[in-house]
Amino acid sequence: MQPTEFRTAERAHASILAQREQRLLLWLAERMPAWVTSDRLTLLGLLAMLFAGLCYWLARFHPAGLLLVILCLALNWFGDSLDGTLARVRRQPRPRYGFYVDHIVDTFGALFLLAGLALSGYITPLVAAALLLAYYIISIEVYLATYTLGTFHLAFGGLGPTELRILLALGNLWLYFTPRAPVVFVLGADHKLLDVGGVIAATALLLFACLSAARHTRALYRSDPLTRAHG
């Protein structure tokens, strides 16, 4: 198959921890042994999300599963964040392959994580499904913008994948040290804390997706004007 032309997108990473994270990733990549490859790191990231989902399911029966999820999130960060940096440091980039594999892995990783969370008992399955749907919608918007505008946005509102992992880990610690699953009183009724948080997160993701879609549509409309036929 003849390879098609591919233009590497500009990475727009404006999250809170982006600069510190990039320095750490470069430091790690320069010290990785030869047997550690980008593909192995990508696989590690995927397996970590699979086991994170399983550990959430385990947390339904024993709260120690919540702590294991934190370990899985750390392993996912290591594999998912370092794979591309390692390829660039070793001057072995495969932009088309890397972009596709990295983000199809993220797609399945989110499914594994939120499916496990839905089975944990800490969140209503419908809320977990809504959160997954919102994640997929904003992912589609990001990937379409990457293809059409050449800019790949990695963060919204100062929050990127790393910050979200940290927030999820902190939430797990709170749940672990709380004897009973916390509830909050909203709109005249008690709701699970993660249900409220999930609805807020899904709403925020959808809002960012709509705002980004409007901004990118305007930019494309201006850069790709309608040509009228003459005659």
Concise summary:
With 231 residues, this protein is mainly alpha-helical. Helices cover 68% and strands 6% of the residues.
* Total count of domains: 1
Major β-sheet profile = 2 strands, parallel
CATH class reads Mainly Alpha
Low-confidence stretches: none
CATH superfamily: CDP-alcohol phosphotransferase transmembrane (TM) domain
The general outline is globular
Determine the N-to-C terminus distance. 41 Å
On the 0 to 100 scale, the average pLDDT is: 86
SSE string: EHHHHHEHEEH
Question: What fraction strand?
Answer: 5-15%
CATH architecture: Up-down Bundle
Number of strands: 4
Task: Look up the CATH topology.
Answer: Four Helix Bundle (Hemerythrin (Met), subunit A)
The helix tally amounts to 7
Rounded to an integer in angstroms, the radius of gyration calculated over CA atoms is 20 Å
The helix content, as a percent range, equals 55-70%
Q: What topology, given as strand order, has the largest sheet?
A: 1-2
Structural class: mainly alpha
Account of the 3D structure:
It is a single chain. The chain has 231 residues and is mainly alpha-helical. The protein has a single domain, classed as CDP-alcohol phosphotransferase transmembrane (TM) domain (Four Helix Bundle (Hemerythrin (Met), subunit A)), CATH 1.20.120. The chain contains 7 helices and 4 strands. The chain has helices spanning 18-29, 38-59, 64-89, 95-119, 125-149, 161-177, 193-223, and strands at residues 10-12, 151-153, 183-186, 189-192. The strands form 2 sheets. The chain has a two-stranded parallel sheet with strand order 1-2. A two-stranded antiparallel sheet has the order 3-4. Helix 2 packs antiparallel against helix 3 and helix 3 (64-89) packs antiparallel against helix 6. The longest helix is centred in the last third of the chain and has 31 residues, at 193-223. It is globular, with a radius of gyration of 20 Å. The relative contact order is 0.13. The mean pLDDT is 86.
